[in-house]
Amino acid sequence: MTDLDVDVLVIISDEILARLSTTEDFAEKFCASQQVTSRFTEDSIDYVVVSRGDEILWVVDGMTPGWYIPKSTQDVFDRYPELKGKC
Asked: Helix/strand/coil (H, E, C) string of 10-78?
């Protein structure tokens, strides 16, 4: 059995749409698929936040290509203050 070692938070229109526990490998595939989908649709996910415990591993936003890999959780809140209280 594979460990469900990361949490994925999906946010659309300032609302938490989904919160799931999964593997880091699946989280990477999920984030990559969201970036591809957002290029072809108007409705896209605003944020996908991947974390392990209290550590935020990366953030994918619907406006910026690539993934933001923070140095610390505070870096995430400095860059995305709207995520404070959700993560």
From this structure: EEECCEEEEEEEECHHHHHHHHHHHHHHHCCCCCCCCEEEEEECCEEEEEEECCCCCCECCCCHHHHHH
| Residue pair 72/39 in contact by the 8 Å Cβ criterion | no
pTM of the model: 0.85
User: Each residue's pLDDT tens digit in the chain (87 positions)?
Assistant: 468 899 999 998 888 999 999 999 999 998 888 765 555 455 678 899 999 999 999 999 877 778 899 999 999 999 999 999 888
